[in-house]
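Appendix B, record 7
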Amino acid sequence: MQLSQQITVSDIILKEGNKLFNFIRKRVNSKLDAEDILQDVYFQLAKISHDINSIERMSAWLFQIARNKITDNYRKKKSLSFSDLDRAGDAEEGTMFFQDFITDEGDLQDDLLTRDNVWQELEEALEELPQEQREVFELHEFQGMSFKEISEKTGVQVNTLLSRKRYATIFLRKKLDHLYQEILDK
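Structure tokens (predicted):
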């Protein structure tokens, strides 16, 4: 009687980890995204760890999971983000980005006043949004939740959340465009 060798998650990670990471890295824009996707693949592997020996072609299975996660990553990034505001003069050096004025990196008096002004106008504009749009915008942009997480929390379908976020972003862009133009003119 021949005993079959039990493969562990650690064995698979050691054997396939580098190839898998390189595969993912070639298909995404940043190393951080590649690392996140690799962790998602490992998470999927861990979820089926009790049935690991039932998968005949483990390498093929892992790479298919990686492909799916890469696709999910692109879909997630494709959603309209408030921080993707149109930027005048993108090709020029020194282009300012809207998020630069709402972060706490500078401490010059003018920067602080500008940041306070931006936050105040943003808060006022958010108040004008319908509750459903404001909620998804705040959860996604300020709390960093994915649309899937928001869906699980609220019970609203992801496509509905994407639509609400899109409408909120379009409204906020229009509402804050004058402020953005003032900042660029300084």
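Remarks on this record: Residues 137 and 143 are 9 Å apart (CA to CA). The domain at 82-185 is CATH 1.10.10.10 (Arc Repressor Mutant, subunit A).
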